[in-house]
Here is the input.
Amino acid sequence: MDNYFSEHIWEPIKGFLPRLAIAAAIIVIGMLIQYLVLKWMHKVLASRIDKTMHAFIRSATRIIIWIVIVLMAASSLGLDTGSLLAVLASAGVAIGLALKDSLSNIASGMLIIASKNFKSGDYIEMDGAAGSIDSVDLLYTTVNSVDNKRIIIPNSVLAGNIVTNYSHNDLRRVDMNFSIGYGDSILKAKEILRQIISAAPGALEDPEPLVEVMSHDASAVKLVTRVWCKKEDYWNIYFYMNEQVKLAFDREGITIPFNQVDVNLHNADKN
Here is the structure.
């Protein structure tokens, strides 16, 4: 019994232990190398490339290193890596069909990075979701909304839909409409709007601001203003205009009409 145990159980285990130790060492050393490589990438690339591309490259590098570690550990255990790769390739087809959405997200993430239509910090809007891009990873893009909510968007959704990027260009135009009564002076109202625009912090003189009559509505004359500014000044001008126009119109006696509905009553003769 002792000879059987020694020959058929202990000896194979004893012969396998060195290979197991080597495989464990490969995994530990591989994890250390992965840590050092990712740390080096963060130190070298963080200041040279966009944060979005940096995060994507780190995610891809981490996966590649792990694949190399697994193959080297399997080889040290005496496994046929060629056969293992063939098995993984065959399994990859089935896995690819099961994970087609994930693979689509990875491919879309690569397209997003390559196209450079977005970068970290850009303010975007898509299907009612809006916020600043925090990062683009292998599968998802993370967006932070203005009220500090985290929005997770699959890369395939982001790449396959119409997205408005408010930060791509340096200048933005602030379009606003203001209504006055039919009894008020259009010329006076336009002059007030021009004065407010000229005093607005961040409003540009070139391109020239626009103040014109937009339409004659049922209860009011609608005036439109279009003011160009740097993208970071957009909301400051928007809030400034809303407040100052109301104050100036009240001060100068220009009315901002409510919507009105005329109701006509007719007496019907009773027979």
User: Anything to note?
Assistant: The mean pLDDT is 80.
